[in-house]
Design brief:
The complex is a heterodimer of chains A (268) and B (277). Chain A contains eight helices and nine strands. With 268 residues, chain A is an alpha/beta fold. In chain A, strand 1 and strand 2 form a beta hairpin. Chain B is mainly α. Chain B has two domains: 42 residues; 205 residues, MetI-like (MetI-like fold, Orthogonal Bundle), CATH 1.10.3720.10. The chains are: A alpha/beta (268), B mainly alpha (277). At the A-B interface, strand 5 and helix 2 of A face helix 8 and helix 9 of B. The complex binds adenosine-5'-triphosphate and magnesium ion.
């Protein structure tokens, strides 16, 4: 565990994909101001998988929205290195349902590729692949209102993956899913990640999920949110969700993170 | 089907509906919507025959129908309908397209909204038909002025509905588009217009209603054809049965427009089909 003002980095000499320096965000709500983030410092290595946990309302979504270029910071800066200027840099999977009601599932998943003018046969191949992965084959031509909440969330995961960005920004993407589907999609995410080595910033409420997926878990403080601690997670890969949970080291680490988080939640 | 008694509530499948075609007919909406006007017409006919209603103002429905049939036989009525429909159609196109374009542009741009919306809002309360003399001064008394006045009426309805539709689109969809780096143009086509379509159709529905009102009044001027013309002409010569024929045809046209729009809506907004959002 490091001190409060340290820069959280995977290792001192690794190349940063994302470099966050003294990042702060204050929203003004009429008369009052809400500081969502303050003094956030973080380096994420290319190809790294990090998870962020923190109490509700501590600014996790805000941080991700800044990384997705949807929100401008009020202090500090973010630097993101891009490998291929012609490829999409990042795709965000939103916490709430964001699948377009006016498009079929297939068109939703194809959205990013269509915008970029990828040719139809290529789109078809990619989209079919990810729809199958998300277990939505039978619903490819259905509209979102004909799907359950969890199915819609899987569709938005497929939409982000099919876009094939350098960075995946995932905001509690599996929170609405049942245990079985969650475990399946987690393994699928790990498989895709190990094949493509995308950089992933993954927000979750679940300490278990963070430990199963990531190389590093970052713990955020209560609002105003900043990074409070980091935990290196070096369970060997490929990981299998249920094997990992049986590992005693898994439980120890989980308890440590939980102790930290409890202070934050209780102190709010 | 829910049956509740003191100690239980039974929730079960509804019993099968009556299956003979007669039973289905009696239950259908079409039957209900035809039955009540027929009853009213029968009562009306009787009231005129026993001279409780003044036949100079309220001719018997049967005599109106005779008149209508003769105008259908001669084909005369179709000429009038064709003219009115073409004026409504052209005017609607001329009004709906700019209404849609401005609605989408202003809906997505707060800056444009603050500049342009006050001007449009200031014009909106003017009864559109009050502009008709001015429109005739500019465009003459021929068909062009009728298109323009219809277009003005339709524009406002479509504009305000589209604007409301675009402004009401859940912000998350715009975030998704922006995250996928959609261009302005792509955002219009993939988010703003489809997202606002239900509102746009409401605007078209209101607009077509207005269009019919306006065109009937406008056909009092500078023309010898059109359903509005029939009505005004029969007023001048006190030929009240013709006037009723005109009224029936106008009502029928209004009904057809709405029906057409519903069909179109179902085809264009499939994601609303079973009541979802
Ligand atoms: N657009 C906004 N305007 C004003 N305040 C905002 C806005 N967005 C977020 N906030 C505030 O910033 C704080 C952090 O919000 P954020 O959504 O980032 O939390 P979070 O960590 O994602 O919470 P959760 O785990 O519940 O999703 C909250 O207090 C919220 O009220
Ligand atoms: Mg959040």
């Amino acid at each position: 565990m490091l001190t409060d003002n340290a820069v959280f980095a995977a290792s001192r000499d690794s190349v940063s994909k994302i470099r966050i320096r003294d990042l702060g965000k204050t929203f003004s709500l009429g008369q009052t101001e809400v500081t969502a983030l303050t003094k956030v410092n973080l380096d994420v290595t290319a190809g790294e998988f990090i998870c962020i946990v923190g109490p509700s309302g501590c600014g996790k979504t805000t941080l991700l929205r800044i990384l997705a270029e949807l929100e401008a910071p009020t202090q500090g800066e973010v630097l993101i290195a891009r490998d291929d200027p012609s490829a999409p840099l990042s795709s965000m999977i939103f916490q709430e349902s964001s699948i377009f009601p006016w498009m079929t599932i297939r068109d939703n998943v194809a959205y990013g590729l269509r915008l970029r003018g990828v040719d139809d046969t290529q789109i078809n191949k990619v989209v079919t692949h990810f729809i199958k992965l998300a277990g939505l084959e039978r619903f490819a031509d259905a509209y979102p209102h004909q799907l359950s909440g969890g199915m819609k969330q899987r569709a938005s995961v497929a939409r982000a993956f099919s876009n094939d960005p350098e960075i995946l920004l995932m905001d509690e993407p599996f929170a609405a899913l049942d245990e079985q589907n969650k475990a399946l999609l987690q393994e699928e995410l790990l498989r895709i990640w190990s094949e493509t080595r995308k950089t992933v910033v993954f927000i979750t409420h679940s300490i278990d999920e963070a430990l199963v997926l990531s190389d590093r878990v970052l713990v955020m403080s209560a609002r105003p949110g900043r990074l409070k601690a980091e935990f290196k997670v070096d369970f060997p890969r490929p990981r299998r969700v249920y094997d990992l949970k049986a590992d005693p080291a898994f439980g120890r680490m989980g308890r440590e993170i939980w102790t930290l988080l409890r202070e934050e939640v209780a102190g709010q | 089907m829910i049956v509740s008694s003191n100690d239980t509530v039974r929730i079960s499948a509804d019993p099968p509906k009556g299956s003979t075609s007669l039973q289905r007919l009696l239950r259908s909406d079409a039957f209900a919507s035809i039955a009540s006007p027929i009853v009213i017409l029968l009562v009306w006919e009787m009231l005129v025959r026993v001279q409780l209603l003044d036949a100079r103002f309220f001719p018997t429905p049967s005599s109106v129908i005779v008149e209508l049939v003769s105008m259908i036989r001669s084909g005369e009525i179709f000429v009038h309908i064709a003219w009115t429909v073409s004026r409504v159609a052209i005017g609607t196109l001329l009004g709906a397209i700019p209404g849609l374009v401005f609605g989408v542009l202003l809906g997505l741009s707060p800056v444009l909204r603050t500049f342009i919306q006050p001007a449009i809002s200031a014009l909106y309360p003017i009864p559109k038909i009050a502009l008709f003399p001015l429109v005739m001064m500019i465009f003459g008394i021929g068909d062009a002025s009728k298109w323009v006045i219809v277009a003005i009426a339709v524009f406002f309805q479509v504009f305000f509905s589209t604007l409301a539709g675009v402004v009401n689109i859940d912000k998350i969809y715009l975030d998704v588009a922006s995250n996928f780096k959609a261009s302005r143009w792509q955002t219009y086509w993939t988010i703003a217009i489809p997202g606002a379509l239900p509102f746009i159709f409401t605007g078209l529905q209101l607009g077509l209603g207005m269009a019919l009102i306006v065109v009937v009044i406008a056909e009092n001027f500078g023309t010898q054809v059109g359903v509005g013309y029939i009505i005004w002409q029969s007023w001048q010569v006190f030929e009240v049965r013709n006037m009723y024929v005109g009224l029936i045809v106008v009502a029928f046209l209004g009904y057809c427009f709405q029906l057409l729009l519903q069909r179109l809506q179902r085809a264009v907004i499939p994601w609303k089909k079973d009541g979802g959002t």
